[in-house]
What does this fold into?
Amino acid sequence: MPEIRTSHLAVTRTARYAAFGPVPSLADEWWIVLHGYGQLAGDFASQCAALDNGRRLVVAPEALSRFYQPGANGSQPDARVGASWMTREDRESEIADYLGYLDALVEALGAGVPAEPPIHVLAFSQGTATASRWVASGRVNVARFVCWGGLIAPELDIASPGAPLRRTRVQMVVGSRDRFATADRVAAEHARLDDAKLSYEAITFEGGHRLDDQTLARLAAN
It folds into this structure.
C-alpha cells in the first residue's frame, strides 16, 4: 500500500449571497445574517424580512458547500438543495476559508463607502458557530451579535479582557420549544458565558427552531 500524502491548494471560489434594502452607501445599518444547516441564502433572507424598514441593508451570505437534501434523488430537477458551513473534515481549512469569505464580503460592500455604518451580525443554528468565530476574529467591528437557536463556538476565548466578543453586544435568542437548542444545552451555554463574565442578553420566544418575526423586529428596534 503506497504512502498517501494530503496537501492543500488555495483556489478561487464564487460565493453567492442574497440581500435586500438600500445600497450599502445609503444604509443606516448593515445586517449580515448567516443561515443554518441545509438552508440557502435567498430563503434565509426572506425569513429575515421583519428587519426591513427601508434603511437597513440585510445581506445573507450562503455557505460554500451545497448538497442535495437527504432522500432527494440528484437526478431529479426538483431535488431540494441546501448548504452547510462546515463539517469535521479538514476543519481548520474550512474555518479559515469562511472567515476569509466573510471578510471579503464586508470589504466588497464597503467599496466606495466613505464610512461603514454599524454592522450587526445575526446567525441561526449551525451559522452561530461560524458567525461567532468571525466576530471573535476581530477583523470586522461588529456592534451586535445575535446568536439565535445555537451556541457560540466552544473553543473561543471569551474570558480574556481584550476578546472581541466582549466589545460586542451579545444577544442569545432561543425558542421555548427548540428541539436542538434544548433547555439543558441553553442552560449550560449560559453557565459558560456567566463563568467567563461575558455580558449577554437572554431572550426567549414562544416557538421552535426557527426565526420569529415579532422577536426579530423588537431586537432590531433596540
